[in-house]
TrEMBL record:
Domain AMP-dependent synthetase/ligase stretches: 79-285
Organism of provenance: Methanoculleus frigidifontis
GO molecular function: ligase activity
SUPFAM superfamilies: Acetyl-CoA synthetase-like
Official protein name in the record: Phenylacetate--CoA ligase
Length: 433
């Protein structure tokens, strides 16, 4: 594989936009000519490739949805022939058929390039030992991170998920400097390490976590950094875009979206209108160079804000803020929109509260109920019962004022809620069971 192209990260903005326009036009012409799916979609929308005369004209193109991939299972949207494919990944999805993603050699190269940029943005390079504790296999996390880490000349420790005690021993013995995994798995590892009498902060060389694949909050970042003595970076992507692709840099001021690979828009979920930078809405991504499974104006369902100012690190590509939730995991409790990330945000500000929680939504008669089960810290656990009552009241009040809805609270012993090696499942919605 060729070395990655770090110079692209500082390309002047006007040059980047010219490049994006050229790539967009080429992709749209290619799809209109060769893909039945896209040609039909564009005709339905009354748009022809000749109508794309500027980058802003991307807004004329039809949206794509996750449902389109499921409806065209397994490969009817692919625009490369089978013999050009070098890999499949498959995402389980929450309902119905899984989503199959195919990759040409060029797709794998661009994907590795984006991860090479992501890792170097987080200050990693040759000499680092990167433990990849995302799942290897059909999930994109493990192999994606693996190729990116090799591309920058780092040493990879491909532990995948599971066998946590062994992972911690290897982390110590092989002088691992960075770990790539879900934030919830890193929390679990920290706890298991403590049980083994090992402090990740004091007894290992770990200095960075490249964490993603699930929502996590700024407060969670602070806790992880303070507790484990590392820098925790947010990495984002979805299987349809290739897998993990985009990350923060050492400034930790938003996720860089590599503009030569992806065009980013944030839209109003209701009207589909493109929003200005700084406004919160639904993320829409067009992959500019993808071959096997092209994604044009893909409505991912994640909620964020576009930051268009260049970053202090010198990279010129646009950034998005930390994902604050999903359009579709938004819970509606008695008419009020609630995101699990808001709950996490509120809980972690309260001293005495541990790192794990679970939301149980149910219905009593016609009324939605929401119970938040929260682990308390070891120190709070040894407090008097009256102190625990005060803590419970405090949590109830904080949640009510943050969410504008009354919430039941149950404080549970440290270590009682389920732990996850991959993506965590924080919400149990019994209304749909
Ligand atoms: O989770 C790809 C990935 C692997 C990203 C490893 C980062 C690290 P999917 O399984 O298709 O792909 O799930 C994609 O996960 O639409 C978001 O809702 C959520 N997600 C991913 N990263 C983040 C993040 C991988 N950093 C879905 N913050 C996305 C919040 C995230 N949500």
């Amino acid at each position: 594989m060729p070395p990655w192209n770090p110079r692209m990260e500082e390309i002047p903005r006007d040059e980047l936009q010219r490049l994006q326009f050229r790539l967009l036009k080429t992709q749209v012409y290619r799809l209109y000519s060769f893909s039945e799916f896209y040609r039909a979609r564009m005709k339905e929308q009354g748009v022809h490739p000749d109508d794309i005369r500027s980058l802003a004209d991307a807004a004329k193109l039809p949206f794509m949805y996750k449902g389109d991939l499921r409806d065209n299972y397994p490969d009817r949207i692919f625009s490369a022939s089978r013999d050009e494919l070098v890999r499949y990944h498959v995402s389980s999805g929450t309902t119905g058929k899984p989503t199959v993603v195919g990759y040409t050699r060029h797709d794998i190269e661009n994907w590795s390039e984006s991860l090479a940029r992501a890792f170097t943005s987080c200050g990693l390079g040759r000499g680092d030992v990167i433990q990849v504790s995302y799942g290897y296999g059909l999930f994109t996390g493990g192999l994606g991170a693996h190729y990116g880490a090799e591309r920058i000349g780092a040493t990879v420790l491909p532990t995948s998920v599971g066998n946590t005690e062994r992972q911690i021993e290897l982390m110590q013995d092989l002088h691992v400097t960075a770990i790539a995994c879900t934030p919830s798995y890193l929390l679990h590892m920290g706890e298991v390490a403590e049980k083994m009498g090992i402090s990740i902060r004091d007894d290992t060389d770990l200095s960075a976590g490249i964490l993603g694949a699930e929502p996590w909050s700024e407060q969670m970042r602070e806790r992880i950094e303070d507790w484990l003595g590392i820098k925790a970076y947010d990495i984002y992507g979805t299987s349809e875009l290739s897998g993990p692709m985009f990350s923060e840099c050492t400034e930790q001021q938003g996720i860089h979206i590599w503009g030569d690979l992806a065009l980013v828009e944030v839209i109003d979920s209701g009207t589909g209108e493109v929003l200005a930078p700084g406004e919160q809405g639904e993320l829409v991504i067009t992959m500019l160079q993808k071959e096997a499974l092209p994604m044009v104006r893909y409505r991912i369902g994640d909620i964020t804000v576009l930051e268009d100012e260049p970053c202090a690190c010198g990279r010129t590509h646009p950034r998005i803020r930390r994902i604050s939730g999903r359009v579709d995991d938004m819970l509606i409790i008695r008419g009020i929109n609630v995101f699990p990330s808001q709950v996490e945000h509120a809980l972690l500000e309260i001293p005495g509260i541990g790192r794990h929680f679970q939301i149980v939504v149910d219905r009593q008669g016609a009324l939605d109920t929401m119970l938040v089960r929260v682990e308390i810290s070891e120190e709070a656990f040894s407090d008097k019962i009256t102190d625990l009552m005060v803590l419970k009241k405090k949590v109830e009040n904080r949640l009510r004022s943050t969410l504008n809805v009354a919430v039941g609270v149950e404080l549970v012993e440290p270590g009682t809620l389920p732990r996850f090696e991959g993506k965590s499942k924080k919400v149990i919605d019994r209304r749909s069971m």
